[in-house]
Write the structure tokens for this entry.
Amino acid sequence: MPFFRRSKADVTKSSSRDSQAAQSQVAQETRTALEEGHLPPLALRRLKDLGGEKGGSFTSDFSVNEFLLMKQSGLVPLTQVLGACVYRVGYYQFPAYGRGTLRSLEDAHNKARSLAFSRLLDEAATVKADVVAGVRLIENSLELSGDTLSYSIIGTAMKAPELREILSSVSNSSGPVLTTLSGQDLAKLLINGFVPLGVVAHTSVLFTALSYSTLQAMRYIYSGGGNFEVPEFTQCYYDAKREVMAKIFEEAKAKSASGVVGADLNITSRGYTISQMNGENPDSAIYTAEMVATAVGEVDGGGVLEKADLVVKMRP
């Protein structure tokens, strides 16, 4: 009776099909998890291996000084955590009178960032963290057609049992608390009787168009006129800042915060040409103001942590 063996080519094709099927299954599981508001399976597996259930070595972006200070203060780093979201912006229309808020674009920014923050919190909760320090937004450039927003947020998850008890009584929250503060600044805050209550963030998007008189003046410049300020664009900077700070104040007030620290304000602008009165030069612009900060509250009874000493004694 003859014996048959598969050729190497057949084995390679079969292995390739199995690999593609496995990748397709992982992609489908990831999509399903994200649609249901859960973390992707691969992310959960990574968290369990790094500082999680298996007790692996931790990862962090702390400096040596920060790590030693955290250790002496009783804050135990677990692992770096990530939250990400790529969001497609729907249709939006410029204001009829040449000035106003682009609500659809503004909502898209705030929704995308909120999803990224929620996934960061999910990762922190998976490793049973009490606080996430050094939370920051990572700049992303995604080459896709149209308006597509890309947010990724990273931080270091830590265990802090004493802080967890205080936060539970102050903020009535049982989950991890996020802060934009570095490890050193967080320790200073706790030593002096303040605790982080969470991250507050908002994006405001404003549109403004140049007035007829400004357009006439700019046409005069192109024919040899002098220098002058463009008042509509200048004013939009101030309006964008005022709106985003007002929202940050509302969020901090909702958390019963004493104040906000570590505020990071970023304002960008993008010119548009709508009419032909300014030739090919922009006659309008969109201003996007984004602020991320940490809301803090004061604790009765003094410092949460004892003051750490990083001086190494050379003599007994």
User: Anything to note?
Assistant: The mean pLDDT is 79.
